[in-house]
Amino acid sequence: MNTIQTVTLNPAVDKTVTVENFSFGELNRIKTIRTDAGGKGINVAKVLQRFSVPVKALGFQAGHEGKVILEKLREQGISSYLIEAEGETRTNLKVVDERTKQTTELNEAGFSPSEALLEEFVERFESSLSEAALVVLGGSLPPGTPVDFYRRLIKLANRKGVRTILDADGEALARGIEAVPFALKPNIHELEALFDTTFTTDEQIVSAAQQLIHKGISYVMVSMGGEGSILVSEREAIRAKPFPITPLSTVGAGDSMVAAMAYSFVHGKSLEDMARWTSAAGTVTASKSGTEVCTLDEVQDKLGLVNIFRLTIEV
Ligand SMILES: Nc1ncnc2c1ncn2[C@@H]1O[C@H](COP(=O)(O)OP(=O)(O)O)[C@@H](O)[C@H]1O
Ligand SMILES: O=P(O)(O)OC[C@H]1O[C@](O)(COP(=O)(O)O)[C@@H](O)[C@@H]1O
C-alpha cells in the first residue's frame, strides 16, 4: 500500500548533445553526447528511487531502445512493469547551447501501442492500484492512444481512493482534468494553452489555479523555468524562487518537481515545505547534465536556499 506508481505510456531515450554556440540553419559540431532513460514517469521514478521511496514504473517500451531503458532502470535498481509494444521506443534529442545555457528539445512521436495492449495496460494498472499510495501520470500519449486515456486511468484511481498527480499537456491534460486528479503540475506554457491566454502576473496564475481547484483538484503547481514556481491549494498560494545555478540541462527538472511533490504528499509536508522541496529538486536537476536527476542529499542541502513568499488568495 505504500508504493508510488508512475505511468509512462510514451517513454524515451533522451540523447543530450552539447554545442558551443547553437546556430539555426548552420553546421553545429557536437562536443559531448550522453543518453539517459527518459519520459516523465520514468524520471519521477528515478528521483523517488534516489529518495528511498518504494516506487514502480509502469507503462510501455518497444524495440532495441526499450531494452536500453529496461537495462538502465535495472542498473538503478528501479522496479518496473513496462509492457512490450511493437515498433521502436523514441529517441528525444536535447541540444544544450553552452553559451546561452538554453536547452532545445526535439521529441519524436513514439511507437503506437495496439488497442489490445492499451487494454492490457488498463487491466494491469487497475490491479496494481491495491498496492499504490499514489500514482503519477506523466508525458505525452503515444500516437493512436485515445485522448481521454489519462481521464480513464484517473477515474479508476479515484474509485479506489488512490491519489493522482497529472503532468501532461494539450488535450490529454484537458481531458484528464475532467476526471479530477488530486494534483496537477502544468508548466506556465501548458497552463496558458489550457486557458487560451497569456499570464503576465502571479495573481493571474493563482486565479487560474484556483479555477482548477474549484473543480475539485486539491493542488496545482505551476512551474516557470528559471522564474521558479507557484504552488496553490484551496487556502494557500506560495511562490518559490530558485537559488542561482548554472543550468546544464533543464530536462527532467519538471519531473523532479513532480517527484518531490509526491514525496511531500506521502510524508504529509505542509504547503510551504512542499514549495521548498519541489523548487530545490527542480533547480538541482536543472544544474545537472543530460537527464541526470537530483539526489535526496543534494535537495536537503539546498532547502534553505529557496526563496519562499506567500501570495494572497481569494477564498
Ligand atoms: N534556468 C533555470 N534556473 C534555475 N532553475 C531552473 C531553471 N530551469 C528550470 N529550473 C527549475 O526547474 C523547475 C521546473 O522547470 P520548468 O522548465 O518550468 O519545468 P518543465 O520541464 O516541466 O517545463 C523550475 O521551477 C525551477 O525550480
Ligand atoms: O512525453 P513528452 O511530452 O514528449 O515529454 C518527454 C520528455 O520529457 C522528459 O520527461 C523531461 O520532462 P521535464 O523536462 O518536463 O521534466 C524527457 O525525459 C522526455 O524526453
UniProtKB/TrEMBL annotation:
Gene Ontology annotations of biological process type: carbohydrate catabolic process; D-tagatose 6-phosphate catabolic process; lactose metabolic process; small molecule metabolic process
Presence of the UniProt keyword Transcription in the record: no
Annotated pathway: Carbohydrate metabolism; D-tagatose 6-phosphate degradation; D-glyceraldehyde 3-phosphate and glycerone phosphate from D-tagatose 6-phosphate: step 1/2
Xref: PROSITE patterns: PFKB_KINASES_2
Any single Pfam family the record assigns to this protein: PfkB
GO cellular component, one term: cytosol
EC number: 2.7.1.144
Catalysed reaction equations from the record: D-tagatofuranose 6-phosphate + ATP = D-tagatofuranose 1,6-bisphosphate + ADP + H(+); beta-D-fructose 1-phosphate + ATP = beta-D-fructose 1,6-bisphosphate + ADP + H(+)
Primary enzyme class: transferase
Positions of the Carbohydrate kinase PfkB domain: 17-294
Zinc is among the record's keywords: no
Entry similarity comment: Belongs to the carbohydrate kinase PfkB family. LacC subfamily. Belongs to the carbohydrate kinase pfkB family.
Record's protein name: Tagatose-6-phosphate kinase
